[in-house]
Amino acid sequence: MKYLKGMLIWAIGLTFITIGILKYLHLDTMSEPIFNPAHFPRWFFYAVASVEFVAGILLLLTAATSKKIGSLLVALVMLGALGTRILLNQHFRHLIIPGLVFLIAMLMSFKLTKEDN
Prior knowledge:
With 117 residues, this protein is mainly alpha-helical. It has 5 helices and no strands. It has helices spanning 2-24, 32-38, 42-60, 64-87, 96-116. Helix 1 packs antiparallel against helix 3 (42-60), helix 3 (42-60) packs antiparallel against helix 4 (64-87) and helix 4 (64-87) packs antiparallel against helix 5 (96-116). It is globular. The relative contact order is 0.14.
């Protein structure tokens, strides 16, 4: 179970680092169609990219505190993604992945908190 948890943390961490970099390079083709109809300012796009990148880095660090902060940042980004998709009236299927990642991040955060004690 410990290895599965470690693999999950690495997978989410590397994914968020990659997505953050792709946003800066304007290669993230999935986010543009969401940000444009939502009329978010361009700086917000880069702010989200920065938070995603930092969250991914924090998840990959060895300290439990950094993993907890990283998982909370991931949860915050996914909460924003869920809210944006709901405001844009997107189909239910577009809520599944952000919702699952949000739940996993919150569970990781609570699990890391329990391990700290």
